[in-house]
Write a structure and sequence with these properties.
alpha/beta; Rossmann fold; Ribosomal Protein S5, domain 2; nine-stranded mixed β-sheet; 12 helices; 25% strand
């Protein structure tokens, strides 16, 4: 009998090789090949499919019953319900990913405790023991429900069988990277184990109508660990962002088959667990000191308006190459704005170190932050400050022009609510006396940096 040969599978893209190489030729990643034993093939897959297929029973679109009547499971957190599209849909599979220690298990234990007050819930952990989860549940006040069950298991076969039993309406699995199938010889967390385990879990959820929430790990670059197919298989992908050591934490949907991806839930970690921040703008500006380099930005987190302080620090460089550092803002975008400032406003920053900080641990991806960042840099470089009563928003083009942004009314309403008297915005969005429109970056600096 011929000896069974092992193969080496890339953990990033799933490509397989007959021998180990340091670099995957398909995706270009280094040290991602892991040795795996091949599955016994026997008869070819093409031959099996040609002989064992059966005629499918099809339905017309009119004969399919609508699923609008399925009641969603209320998580107990209104903002999280909005992110999910109204709650957890029965039969849906949600993937929640985030940095280690950010609060994924805490949030899901709070959610499961609330849902367990009405329907049976199972919390399956492959990372912690029952005593460890019990300690967290006592701290969060989630240990009193008799319908909240717990199991410590890493077997995807056993968990799928439990889901198919129909006993539980919600199953939380912490985490998908710890599960493994008995028929696959590779270690948990590999591409083959994650792909096949998630397939088994998803099929069980669809067959039984139980909702499933999977916890996912992330890589050091911030992307979800495992194959990209995992994000395609599930119905909802939630990203848990923020600083694990403090500040605000944001849950947003990057994929949602049942709702919008424009919503966001903002939390703050306290001793009793994660709490929704009802007025994040006031909390972010509570300790603000209006000095040079400080600008208030009217931004959006999903569809929620938010006022955030942008801080800039400009110092003479001690080396031949100036340093640029950004916390909560894209570094490439910062370099672009510095180049526009030097070219269009004649501000000399070639011998200056520039540091940008977004207060509160938030990460901005809103194009409207361009004008606020540029104003903060100019304010810090000139040693002059903006008025306490001005908020700023607008996108900056390469020609120095200020371009219009979306949802101006929401930004203005949030600024008025917190007592601001004026908004520095693109001239094309001027609709009332509250907005002071500016045409280009040079005009904004001359009129407001005093």
């Amino acid at each position: 009998m011929a000896k069974s040969k092992t193969q080496f599978v890339c953990q990033n893209c799933g490509a397989s090789y007959q021998k180990w190489t340091g670099k995957c030729e398909n995706c270009g990643q280094w040290n991602t090949l892991v040795e795996q034993a091949p599955v016994s093939s026997g008869k070819s897959a093409v031959a099996r499919g040609a002989s064992s297929g059966r005629l499918l029973a099809v339905q017309t679109m009119q004969s399919i019953s609508a699923s609008e009547g399925y009641p969603r499971l209320d998580t107990g957190i209104a903002d999280l319900n909005d992110v999910l599209g109204g709650g957890v849909l029965p039969g849906g599979v949600v993937l929640l990913a985030g940095q280690p220690g950010i609060g994924k298990s805490t949030l899901l234990l709070q959610v499961s405790a609330h849902i367990a007050s009405s329907v049976p819930v199972l919390y399956a952990s492959g990372e912690e023991s029952a005593s460890q989860v019990k300690l967290r549940a006592e701290r969060l006040g989630a240990h009193g429900s008799e319908q909240l069950s717990f199991v410590a298991s890493t077997s995807a076969d056993d968990i799928a069988a439990t889901i198919r039993s129909g006993t539980y309406k919600l199953v939380i699995i912490d985490s998908i990277q710890t599960l493994s199938l008995d028929d696959i010889t590779s270690a948990p967390g590999t591409v083959s184990q994650i792909t096949n385990s998630s397939n088994v879990i998803i099929r069980a959820a669809k067959d039984s109508g139980a909702a499933v929430i999977l916890v996912g790990h992330v890589t050091k670059e911030g992307s979800i660990a495992g194959p990209k197919v995992l994000e395609h298989l599930v119905d909802v992908v939630l990203q848990f962002e923020g600083d694990r050591y403090g500040g605000f934490k944001v849950v947003r949907a990057i994929k949602n088959r049942f709702g919008s991806t424009n919503e966001a839930a903002i939390f703050e970690m306290e001793e009793e667990g994660l709490k929704v921040v009802t007025n994040p703008s006031a909390a972010l500006l509570a300790e603000r000191q209006n000095a040079d380099g400080s600008v208030v930005l009217a931004t959006l987190e999903g569809t929620r308006p938010l006022l955030v302080e942008i801080q800039a620090l400009v110092n003479p460089t001690n080396f031949g190459y100036p340093k640029r550092t950004a916390s909560g803002f894209d570094l490439n975008r910062l370099n672009l704005l510095i180049a526009v400032l030097e070219r269009r406003t004649k501000l000399n920053l070639s011998d200056k170190d520039v540091y940008i900080n977004v207060v509160g641990g938030l990460k901005l991806s809103d194009p409207a932050a361009d004008l606020a960042v540029a104003m903060a840099i100019a304010s810090a470089a000139a040693g002059r400050r903006l008025s306490d009563e001005v908020v700023v928003f607008g996108e900056v083009g390469l020609g120095g022009e200020i371009r219009s942004v979306q949802h101006v009314d929401k930004r203005v309403a949030e600024a008025k609510k917190l007592g601001f008297k004026e908004a520095l915005a693109p001239i094309g969005t001027k609709k009332n006396s509250f907005i002071r429109g500016v045409k280009d970056l040079r005009q904004a600096l001359i009129d407001y940096v005093k």
